[in-house]
Amino acid sequence: MGSTGNGFAGDRAATISGGTVVDKDVDFANYFCTYGFLYHQKEMLCDRVRMDSYYNAVFDNKHHFDGKTVLDVGTGSGILAIWAGQAGARKVYAVEATKMSEHARELVKANNLQDVVEVIEGSIEDVTLPEKVDVIISEWMGYFLLRESMFDSVICARDRWLKPTGVMYPSNARMWLAPMRSRLADQKMSDHEGAMGDWFCFLDETKTNYGVDMSVLTKPFSEEQKKYYLQTSLWNNLHPNQVVGTAAIIKEIDCLTVTVNDILNVRASISSSISAEETRLCGFAGWFDVHFRGSKENPAQQEIELTTAPSEDYSTHWGQQVFLLHPPISVSKGDDLNINFSMDRSKQNHRLMEVELSCEIKQTSGKLLLPFRNKFYIE
Amino acid sequence: MGSTGNGFAGDRAATISGGTVVDKDVDFANYFCTYGFLYHQKEMLCDRVRMDSYYNAVFDNKHHFDGKTVLDVGTGSGILAIWAGQAGARKVYAVEATKMSEHARELVKANNLQDVVEVIEGSIEDVTLPEKVDVIISEWMGYFLLRESMFDSVICARDRWLKPTGVMYPSNARMWLAPMRSRLADQKMSDHEGAMGDWFCFLDETKTNYGVDMSVLTKPFSEEQKKYYLQTSLWNNLHPNQVVGTAAIIKEIDCLTVTVNDILNVRASISSSISAEETRLCGFAGWFDVHFRGSKENPAQQEIELTTAPSEDYSTHWGQQVFLLHPPISVSKGDDLNINFSMDRSKQNHRLMEVELSCEIKQTSGKLLLPFRNKFYIE
């Protein structure tokens, strides 16, 4: 919530993100501000899957930390930096852009690590460290991995501050896509119909009571509602039963070598085979996993996986991102899907995404259904 | 959601609001953007009390509009400008800061008023009109009247563009405060207790499972939760039965003469007498009314009132703003309340408010209860 208090309108600093100039105060108003709340930090700290995987990644691989230097990008409450310190790091630089850094500093002190962990308030793009580091650790993953585009900052940190022999925590990341079923499809279509029905009553009443014909707004209103109800991906925690076909990898990232350019766009052509007997293809689910493997030269002793795939036993605060089809399509076991997936950053906000998903269905009979192509927004 | 596309970080324009420099893009990200959605405009257009009062104010006072020039500040969908045109205005300038102006332009055309109503996209602080106007009409009221601080823009418009003989629509505005009762008080106290109880479990688990002592964050977390659950004013639609004492005016505004300085702060000392037999004082309700009276020299033929007071028959999208006490206080009919109310703009965001409310209760027995003073945030 960012009115500025100074009088120098011309001093507004900006960062460059994948070619787009981003106003820092606008970025704060749109994005960073939620991370300044302890309630939000707590939500992430209560995610057992997230916490367990990073905890185990660190403490099962102390050789990567003991006596080493570490950089925690976006330290938030300071938890990863503290673990790195507890695992024996010589020095940990914990960088945080929001005022949460003040709480991180308190937490470090309360856990007797003030001589090891140095909390620095600022953007990783701007801060200067006294030395390069052996490890960069960061929990940067947004919904469907790349939402929030925080990994840009981690790449920047790596290019500036990681020693040639250094390791990334996590070391790898993948995005997955699978066909799914969900009642949300019917629900959203129904909500949309309701909103449009309501609109036509409104047109009527406005003409009758107030003498103004608003029908020229029907088209833009309809587009706005369609985007909101039908084209915006949803957060959901799917049961594995809802995944109705084989999942496929649509993006693989080596955190040591990837560039910002590599992650500006996602382009994938994948195949999926329906595994459920007879069901409705209601859309697609997207999720991610990351791995802690160290590097080739300096591998982990214990490889750890953090996955956000639909699971009976586990759920994470990331859930999955759901892209719904309207209307759903009847499919049977053995039907083959050829899917083209593309994802780009929104021009208005580099931290949000636009998706195009086209799909061709070949039924077991051999019949080819008409392909469809849908646009989605990850907001 | 505003990343800027240009490369000139130094060109960021800013407006000055009551002494504070406001970054325009941040203001857009925080405030203006919601008004760019047709869904939001529709919500306001469906508010029958709002629509009826402005409609009647215009059409029952055609003498103010017929053959005259009009300025609509923040035209949104264009509704007020269209009515002014239909009431016979010679020319209407309809200014709108968001892309909603494009829809307003379409609406004007679809209602055959393109020769009368000129829609101008831009901030009223920046635009240049070809002439001064006879009437400024605007629906600028936020929750509890002044939230959003849009009236600053109307005052600016008036000082730049209203003829000395001109009239303001509305002409007057008042803020009201009254003691009230509501189950929300218990509910919020309960939610707060739940959040704090949950916190202590979290502290325990984090120490046990992850070896980190987070107790140093209890105080800031508690303050954050207290602010969120107990100190943030709530939107509510109160039934008149819930108003338990006499209401009093805490601010009066003459829209023709008021300055921005006059509305930066609200300071009032009021009295209220409990009217309910025996009840709990759960807090205070704030609302507003506006009147369409024209000016002394050029009065309305039909004075119209738009009130957002608690009502059995009517409700508006503004509801009332509720400031809750924790815990509620037992009061009886005839008890007298002396209330000091002060409201100032938030330093972080000039469109949001901070309130201090202190209250002394003199019971009918003559006994004086300890005064209390509470801080609230209108977010």
UniProtKB/TrEMBL annotation, chains A, B:
Domain annotation Protein arginine N-methyltransferase: ranges: 209-362
Top enzyme category: transferase
Keyword Cytoplasm: no
InterPro entries reported in the protein's UniProt record: Arg_MeTrfase (IPR025799), PRMT_dom (IPR055135), SAM-dependent_MTases_sf (IPR029063)
Gene Ontology cellular-component terms listed: nucleus
Keywords: Methyltransferase, S-adenosyl-L-methionine, Transferase
Any one GO biological process: methylation
Entry-linked SUPFAM superfamilies: S-adenosyl-L-methionine-dependent methyltransferases
Molecular function per GO: histone methyltransferase activity; protein-arginine omega-N asymmetric methyltransferase activity
PROSITE patterns assigned to the protein according to its UniProt record, in alphabetical order: SAM_MT_PRMT
A matching Pfam family: PRMT_C
E.C. number: 2.1.1.319
Gene3D superfamilies: Hnrnp arginine n-methyltransferase1, Vaccinia Virus protein VP39
Catalytic activity as recorded in UniProt: L-arginyl-[protein] + 2 S-adenosyl-L-methionine = N(omega),N(omega)-dimethyl-L-arginyl-[protein] + 2 S-adenosyl-L-homocysteine + 2 H(+)
UniProt keyword S-adenosyl-L-methionine present: yes
Self-association and partners: Ring-like homodimer.
Protein name: Protein arginine N-methyltransferase PRMT10
Organism: Actinidia rufa
